[in-house]
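re: ur question from earlier - yeah i can do the single chain one, its not a big deal. heres the input i used so u can compare w yours
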Amino acid sequence: MNEIIRAVRETVMEHGLLIADDTVVVGVSGGADSLALLHLLLRLGDEFGVRLAVGHLEHGIRGPESLADAEYVRGIGQAWGVPVTVAHRDVPALARARGLALEEAARQERYRFLAALARSLGGRTVAVAHHGDDQVETVLMHLLRGAGLGGLRGMRPLSWLDELRLGEEPEARPAAEDRIRLIRPLLGVERAAIEEYCRAEGLRPRFDRSNLDTTYFRNRLRHELIPILETYNPNVRAVLRRTAEAVAGDYALLREHLAAAWPGLVRAESPEEIVYDLAALRGLPDGLLRSALREGIHRLRWSLRNIGWVHVDDALRVVRRGQTGAAATLPGGLLLRLGYDDAALTAADRPPAPSGGPRLEGAPREVAVPGCTPLGAEWELVIREVARGDLPHDWDVAPHSLVAYLDADRLAQPLALRSRRPGDWLMPLGMGGRRQRLADLMINVKIPRAERDGTPLLVGGEEIAWVVGWRTDARSAVREDTRRILVAEVRRRRAAE
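and the output i got, formated as tokens:
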């Protein structure tokens, strides 16, 4: 049995799990895992200078058996000289009220109880009995449900209870000195070794019949899927644990890069909205861009636990290729909406903020070709002519809401800037040559009503060539036989900067 003691001691020392003079609340269900954990921590407590207390939550799920578990844990505490606190919750009722699976509701209540108990005792640490086989099941569960690196790294020996997304929005993130540590000293130990330890030490754990119920997803993995996987690779458990460790290292590196990049990515941040710099977002590699989007979602919806790949990938495509006004729906009632040069992450039902994009001030005016024409105090239109071979490689696929590529020989002269007029229409690029009223386009692309009169229109003669910042007209667009190309770009005036 010295091997399991040595393994736990090494885990404690490597990850700094126990802090001298701390009170550690041990979650004890009465089963083999938590009973062994308590027994091992009692043997190591004096060595690391910690006090132990036991917390047991009776979930109200298994009737008399569950109540007997609570009494058993009380008896263990009395016999071993450890104070025990037992609490009772009607988890099935809570699950129904919150619309949660029974497993998730039990998880949330258990951690809330243990955190509250630790705070009441002046402790900084909660210890739970997750072990190496639990890690295998967790990684598989995240893999099958769909997860990023944060999920595929599985559980960590040391984490924080306030990061567990317990279904409630805190008023504020707790201060560093008030955070409760969550430790898993048995994470490097297999279930078989724990059961052997209990036998060798004469421990008589309670048996939870619900662990055999394969209607629970985790139990199905344990009793059905993992044995099948072991027929393909007998060492699949070790492989999955090593995979979790490798992914954890990659995830930590990604988080470091995100922390360094975040100040340059975000223009404004509040509890209601995060405004990203669109050019900075587009400059990120896909992995870091996804991480930045997930971070924004977590900051606005702290209790949201699972953020699906599909939603984040849809938002990534909108950032990469979307034009002004494009939007992606995200979990938690959030929406990512592109502006002229930013991307706002906010509640879907929140009215769009003024875009701050180009506005035409004053009377219509002729456009210098080539040259620079002011739109107003803050923005200007710059036009230059280029040969087809000088176009950027991604000119026809990358989103350029502030740049339009036009066929110089198909534009009627002179070019001018003006605002909208009754009866205006165009043939938006990508609509197969169909006509559309300008008023309908402005509604469809979600130009705020207050900004429609000031939206600049680049016109050649009477034809709209570009609804500046929004859509190019197909009649003026570059084609296969185009030889001379006008690049029209709106940008902030240097004097305003």
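The longest strand covers residues 379-387. not sure if urs matches, ping me
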